[in-house]
Amino acid sequence: MALLEIKDLQTQFFTSAGTVKAVDGVSYTVEEGETVAVVGESGSGKSVTAMSIMRLIPWPPGKIVGGSINFDGKDLLALSEDEMREIRGRDIGMIFQEPMTSLNPVLTIGMQLTEPMIAHLNMSEEDAMAKAVKLLGMVGISEPERRLAQYPHHLSGGMRQRVVIAMALACDPKLIIADEPTTALDVTIQAQILELMKNLTRELGVAMIIITHNLGVVARYADRVNVMYAGRIIESGIASDIYHRPRHPYTLALLKSVPRMDRQRTDKLDPVDGQPPDLTKLDGGCSFRPRCRFAQDHCANSFPALEEIESGHTSACFEKDNLAKEVKEVVG
Amino acid sequence: MSDVVNARQGTRTGSSKGFDDVLVDVRNLKMYFPVTEGVFVPKVVAHVKAVNDVSFQIFRGETLGVVGESGCGKTTTGRCILQLEKPTAGEIIFYGDDITKYDSKQMIDVRKKIQVIFQDPYSSLNPRMKVGEIIAEPMKVHKIINDEAERQKRVRYLLNVCGLASAFADRYPHEMSGGQRQRVGIARALAMNPEFIICDEAVSALDVSIQAQVINLLEDLRDEFDLTYLFISHDLSVVRHICHRVAVMYLGNLVELADGDELFENPMHPYTRLLLNAVPIPDPDIEKERAHEIIKGEIPSPINPPPGCVFHPRCPSAVDGCKKDVPQLREIKPGHWVACSEV
Question: The complex's ipTM?
C-alpha cells in the first residue's frame, strides 16, 4: 500500500470575490522512499495541496470540502486536531521556501531543533541536544556544538535552510514535504541543498514531495512528476515520460516555453499565449482550453478526467491522441 | 594599467560578431559602500566592496548579460551606469564623455537615452497612477511631447507595441497581472525612445509561461528599435537565450567575459564552470548523464574579501599563488577573457 494516498481532494477559499477552487479534485500517491515532484505555476494549487495534507489551511477563508488523505493507514481528514499535531513534525516533516520565516528569530537553533524531539519522542534535553549535534553534522553545518547557541540571524540563507532540513529530519519522519525549498537561494547553494536532500532521503529511506515551479530541479531530482494547472493534476508520470513524451498540451507548452542553458541563443521560445484562468470563474470545461492549440468545441462541455495512456502515465485531455500523433517525442 | 588598456582593445576587436561600435565603456569601475558605526556621529569602520575594478564595454545593438549570485555586484554595476550611485572611482564613457563627472542637470539628457526595467512589476509602478499616466509621465517630464492628445496617442501606440490593448491606459496597476505590469514597465522605458536599456532581473519574477512571452517581446523590441540591452540576471538559462555576450561576476569582480555560446559551451574560469554545473537542465536523461560537481562553501563577505583571487577559498584548482596574486583579465582566445592564473 502506498505511504500517502490523496483521493479527489477539494480545497476551496470563500472570499468576497467568490469561491476560489484552489484544489479541485486532486488525487495522487507517494510510495515509501520515493521522490514525487509537483510542478506548476503560481496559483495552480500545488502549495494548497501540500498545506491540505498537513491540514494547515486557515479557516476562514479556506476549507477542505471533499476527498480523503490516507497516510500510513490513517485518514488524516478524520483525525482530531490533537491527533493531527502528533503527525505534523513527527511522521511528516516540512521544509518551506523562506528559511528566515520558518525559523523563530528569538529562539536559538538548539531550542528549535530539540523542541520537536522533546515534544514528540519524549527525549530528555541532553539526548535531544546530542541528537541535534548529530543532525547538524549530517546536514553539513560546521562546528555544530557552537551553532546550537546561535540565532537564525547569525546564519546565511543556505545555512538556515540546512537547519530547517535538520528540523524536518529530527523525528525520523516517513515523509517530507518540501515546498519550493530552494527558490530563495542562489543557484550554487540550491545545488548544495538539493544534493543534500537527495542523499539524505535516499540514505534514510524517507519519501519526499517536492513542490516547485522549476522544471530543471524536477528533472534532476524527481522519480515521478505531477503537473498541475488551475487546481487539478493534468498529467502524471515518470520524469522521462513527462519530459520526452508529454501527452497534455499544457505540459508540452511549458516545456517549449522554458529557456534552456544547453540551447543556442538563436532558438526561439514558444510561449503559451494568454493568462492562467481566474479560479473563481471556472466554467466546468477544460480550464486550459482558452490557451490550448489542440482545443475543440467539445472541450467546453466537461473537464477531462485523468486517463492512463500507458502504465503509470496519465493525462487529462480529450485530444491527447491527436497530440500524440503530432508530437511523438520532444527531443532535448 | 597596461592590462586594462589591453583588455579594452581586446574586447573591441573581439569576436563579438557584427558589433564594433562602443556605446558604453566602463573603465575601472569601483563602488565601495561605507559601513558605519555609531548613531549620532557615524564613523566609517569598513567598506563593502560591491564592485571592485570592473572594466567592460557594451557595443551598440548587442545584449550584454551580466550574471552572478546575490551580492556579486551586478545590480550595483547597472545602478552606477545609470548614475543612481556615485561610483567611488572609475569612468563610464557614454558618447565620448565620462558621465560620472556630470551633475544632475547634465544627466537629464543622458537619462533620455538610458532607461531601466526593474525586477518587481509590483513595486516599480506607482499604484495611484493609471497605466496611461505612468507611461506618459516621462514624456511630460522630459518635454518630449507637449501636446496631451499626441501624448495619449503615443501611449496607446506603446501599449500596443508591448502587446497590451489600448484600453489598459485607463486601468490601475493592481488590476493587472504580473506579466501585464512588466509590459507596462517596458512601455514606460520605451516612451523616451532610448538607445540603451538596463534590464535588472526584468523577467525573474514571472512564471515560466509568462516569462517566455516577455523574453520574446524584449527580443522583438531590440530588433525593431535597434536597442542595446545590459541584461542583469541570476538566471543563466534566460541569459543564454537572450544575450550576445556574457560577463560573469563574483564578489565584485569580473571573472569571465565571452560570446554567449562560447561561454556556455567552453567556460574557462573555475567559478563559471561550477556555476554552470549547478544549473539543472530540464531534461531528466541529460541530468542522469551529467556529472554534478558541487561548489563547496559559501560566498565570503564583501567587506573582507579574501586576498589574492577572491574565489580561491572555494576553488578546486587553486594553487598557493592564488592566495596573494590578484589575477588580471586575460584574453585566452579571441574575445574570451578570463581572470584566472591557472587557465
Answer: 0.84
